[in-house]
């Protein structure tokens, strides 16, 4: 009898040791998964941030009964642990690195590009808001903004993100279209003198043109945008440190406009979130990660969410936002906008919220 008990106890002891070793192995593998890289970035819901504390308009008012909020997406390099998490969570997505960071682009370059785009978005928001409020706004074309350089092409060695190309061979290039027009008259092997501005300092360099990938054209290998100097009649301070990209354009426009319109409260007491790029004519453009932004806005208690109605059909930002709202069961109203004037008209049509 004692021998049977001892044998049973021995089996239990061995079983317990087996479970302990199994748990230890699983823990070790989980720990290692945080150090194993993948070729993906992971995106998740970020936050909804009130804009009034971030934006100060000279002579403007800040007596909103509600609030305007920008929405963000959390993004980072996905290790194996995050990769596995993304396979199981409906609120996480994986993106291949090359879709986020251009080939040969460092993380520093990526951050610099995102900040440059945010700076441009702020200026456009100021211009649109002031024009909506009836002020004169001057727009001066400054040149071609370098938003990226292509790995393996000539510009990569001499130009940086944020540089502004002002001329090619002495011919002014106030816009990206002008740069393309000048280069279209050249052929591979031709050398051109590029004049540019970096950190306020003028400089020149000579670049030899090469055929562009997947194109019949020749070029220097930059991703261009238009750099503009926007002159508004009042000072605007925007404290957006740590937030990059162009997608807050619409919501910044609404906050600035509301501060300028001192006789009205555009919020009507509602918590209003949203997203979308802004163009000089007030057009609201498509953005990425709108599903994550809807989730972030809902968690922050937003009651209205503006979504770009960029294209008709199921692929539009608006339709994607609607689908996400339905999935999470939010009561938040999803409102489609093509132009900032659509958002203003919608808010003006709302009744004042009563507590």
UniProtKB/TrEMBL annotation:
Task: Give me the segments passing through the membrane.
Answer: 21-42
InterPro entries named among the record's database cross-references: Lon_proteolytic, Lon_Prtase, PDZ, PDZ_sf, Ribosomal_Su5_D2-typ_SF, Ribsml_uS5_D2-typ_fold_subgr
Q: Per the record, a Pfam family?
A: Lon_C
Q: Where is the Lon proteolytic domain?
A: 243-350
EC numbers, comma separated: 3.4.21.53
Q: Where is the PDZ domain?
A: 115-200
Q: Which SUPFAM superfamilies match?
A: PDZ domain-like, Ribosomal protein S5 domain 2-like
Q: Give the catalysed reaction(s), semicolon-separated.
A: Hydrolysis of proteins in presence of ATP
Database matches in PROSITE patterns: LON_PROTEOLYTIC, PDZ
What domain of life does the native source organism fall in? Bacteria
Q: Sorted alphabetically, which keywords does the UniProt record give?
A: Hydrolase, Membrane, Protease, Serine protease, Transmembrane, Transmembrane helix
> Biological process (GO) annotations?
proteolysis
The protein's GO terms of the molecular function aspect are: peptidase activity
The active site of this protein is located at 247, 293
Q: Indicate the family of this protein.
A: Belongs to the peptidase S16 family.
Name under which the protein is recorded: endopeptidase La
Query: Source species, please?
Result: Brevibacillus brevis
